[in-house]
UniProtKB/TrEMBL annotation:
Protein name in UniProt: FAD-binding domain-containing protein
Xref: PANTHER family: BINDING MONOOXYGENASE, PUTATIVE (JCVI)-RELATED, TRK SYSTEM POTASSIUM UPTAKE PROTEIN
Keyword Flavoprotein: yes
Organism of provenance: Actinomadura rayongensis
Entry keywords, A to Z: FAD, Flavoprotein
Length: 487
């Protein structure tokens, strides 16, 4: 059997990538060892970056019935002022990760993606022309590319020989769902908080009458890591962190969690790529693990589609590692900083006082808010004097696998629907696409918040590569670099 791309892992990142490829017309097959969606998936919230990425692809609306806005963010439970950020970006949302997986799987299938469950990968071989994956002991699937989205213990990463330098420290974490009436919960048991004894607690609604509980303590370990987790053990950790115990609660499921931190040595090895937790793993402060994985998928998907479609400029696939690897490293750093701020008070309290003072400064507050919400990603796509928008994302809907030359220069003429443009307006010269109409749309738009320029060129992942302003670069060069030669 053969396909264009094999994705190993049907978690949210693998399925998001499958949707990217399917929408771009790429034949993709997902191999997943699980038989079905795990309703015990840990994630309960998606940050602003994931909301924006789902919105950009038209995937958000169907999830709203299960979600509610979460207009709050913190840096190690030091709360941030989001007003400046929310003027330009959507808020985070509470929505179970398993709901996202089910929705993305349904969409991927509608787009023609093949999903094979109960498929455990056991082998991988590649040459200059293709990759062959072996699964379930003897079945094989050959593809042009393979993407490992199979989690921290990635089989694809191991088989590809990619290093994963792991930092594992003493940690005691519990995660699970309890059934409890809201009226029986104490104020300390609702929401997220830092404990003065060191560590964090979070209690979030999972569904009516069900609460997702997450405890994290650094520098300590469970007495018996292999023993089943009981409600008494959970109550003991909750009491240490909050000073309270659940009065009336029944455990649905409880597990211990670990806290590895690592960034893969490479996100690409020949025809094999890594994304999501297979590429980088860290404590899930602020939903950054999911947002980092979604950014991986949006960055890689269109580049694979361009290569398979025959119009990718030289070196395009190499930019995936070049852009995403430094971001993965920096997220590891910011999460480790948050862990240090959540450590025992004798070491953390001076740092918390200092960060509280820094957060009171508007620029520092905005930087940290964009950082933890995944909205501050800016790829180095211009020189030192590049316009501030170059490399950043714009909140704009895009056709899958296609870039857009956005013309804000004259506004949208009367009678022309938003997004429909046959000729040029004030910000874009006529004929600017120069034979690239098959991969870039010319779009008339009203100006976007934060985009005070007459025109901008954005890649299919929404990142700006040119603006019509000083420091914005050369349009012809940007088109050639990211969209290849005109036909």
């Amino acid at each position: 059997m053969s396909t264009a791309v094999v994705i190993v892992g049907a978690g949210p990142v693998g399925l998001a990538l499958a949707c990217e490829l399917g929408a771009a017309g790429v034949a993709a097959t997902v191999l997943e060892r699980r038989d079905g969606t795990d309703l015990r998936s840990p994630g309960m919230a998606i940050n602003g970056a994931v909301v924006e990425l789902l919105e950009q692809r038209g995937l958000l609306e169907a999830l709203r019935q299960y979600a509610m806005d979460l207009p709050a963010a913190h840096f190690s439970n030091l709360w941030l002022d989001l007003a400046p950020v929310l003027a330009e970006h959507p808020p985070s949302m509470i929505v179970p990760q398993w709901r996202i997986e089910q929705h993305l799987e349904s969409r991927a299938k509608d787009l023609g993606v093949t999903i094979v469950r109960g498929a455990e990968v056991t082998g991988l071989e590649q040459d200059d022309d293709a990759v062959t994956v072996t699964y379930n002991g003897g079945q094989t699937l050959t593809a042009s590319y393979v993407v490992g989205c199979d989690g921290p213990g990635s089989t694809v990463r191991r088989l590809a020989g990619i290093g994963f330098p792991l930092r594992d420290t003493k940690f005691y974490g519990l995660l699970g769902d309890i059934e409890a009436d809201f009226g029986d919960l104490l104020p300390e048991q609702v929401g997220a908080s830092y404990s003065p004894v060191g560590g964090t607690y979070a209690g979030t609604p999972a569904e009516p009458g069900v609460w997702r509980i997450n405890t994290a303590e650094w520098g300590v370990e469970p007495a018996d890591p292999g023993a089943p987790v009981t409600l008494d053990e959970l109550n003991d950790r909750v009491e240490r962190l909050t000073g309270t115990r659940f009065k009336k609660a029944t455990a649905r499921w409880l597990v211990r969690t670990q806290n590895p931190t690592a960034n893969a040595d490479a996100y690409r090895s020949g025809r094999v790529f890594l994304a999501g937790d297979a590429a980088h793993v860290f404590f899930p402060f602020n939903g950054q693990r999911l947002s980092a994985g979604f950014h991986d998928a949006s960055n890689l998907g269109w580049k694979l589609a361009a290569d398979l479609g025959g119009w990718a400029p030289d070196g395009l696939l190499d930019t995936y590692h070049g852009e995403r690897h430094p971001v993965g490293r920096w997220i590891c750093v910011n999460v480790q900083a948050q862990e240090a701020l959540a450590a025992p008070p004798e070491s953390a309290q001076p740092l918390r006082e200092l960060f509280a003072a820094l957060i009171a400064l508007p620029d520092a507050n905005r930087y940290l808010a964009e950082l933890v919400m995944g909205l501050g990603v800016r790829y180095p796509l211009g020189g030192a004097d590049a316009h501030p928008l170059v490399g950043r994302r714009l909140r704009v809907a895009l056709a899958p696998g296609r870039g857009a030359l956005l013309d804000f220069g004259g506004g949208v003429p009367d009678g022309v629907p938003d997004g429909a443009l046959d000729g040029a307006l004030g910000g874009v010269p006529d004929g600017a696409l120069d034979g690239r109409e098959d991969r870039v749309d010319l779009v008339a738009r009203e100006p976007l918040p934060g985009a005070d320029v007459p025109a901008a060129l954005v890649r299919p992942d929404g990142h700006v590569v040119w603006v019509a302003a000083e420091g914005g670069g050369d349009l012809a060069e940007a088109l050639g670099r990211w969209f290849g030669a005109g036909r």
